[in-house]
């Protein structure tokens, strides 16, 4: 049992650790919201989306997603368009408006919608979860498979909670407001870089 838990923990952490669109958004919301409680909607939504993806992967949906090329193409096409658009929106946010605009415009509803978007419209993350976690789970059955799934899900929840807390700490330390504009630029570059990476992968699959 310990081996199964460690496998799920290490695998999930390895997938979620790289700096991606979802991670940057959670961190940013932790930094710009006036209170940590205001960032909880995005933290919970991101964790729930990961829970959904992990559950679907382990239940076997990954086999269907990875088998049909047209599903992969649709995921990539929508994902690329979304990342390019959000990259421009993020890059153009003016530094002087950063905290006020983020805190005011990212209502609970908008946080949830955007968190769902960066979680489920990022085909790279979806395919990684489906392919890696889904494939790895095939070696387990019964109780071991359930424990493996729970370990992966717990890692996801702890990670996003930690990101929100880290963002909150960074926001409180950055009294000058210079860090958040830099984070915006980094976020935009990551989005565009991911879009290019996905585009290359899409062209290679044609």
Automatic annotation (TrEMBL):
Native organism: Paenibacillus glucanolyticus
Name of protein: Lysine transporter LysE
Location, primary (coarse class): membrane
Protein origin, superkingdom: Bacteria
Cited InterPro entries: LeuE-type (IPR001123)
Keywords linked to the UniProt accession: Cell membrane, Membrane, Transmembrane, Transmembrane helix
Transmembrane segments: 6-27, 39-64, 70-91, 112-134, 146-166, 186-205
GO molecular function: amino acid transmembrane transporter activity
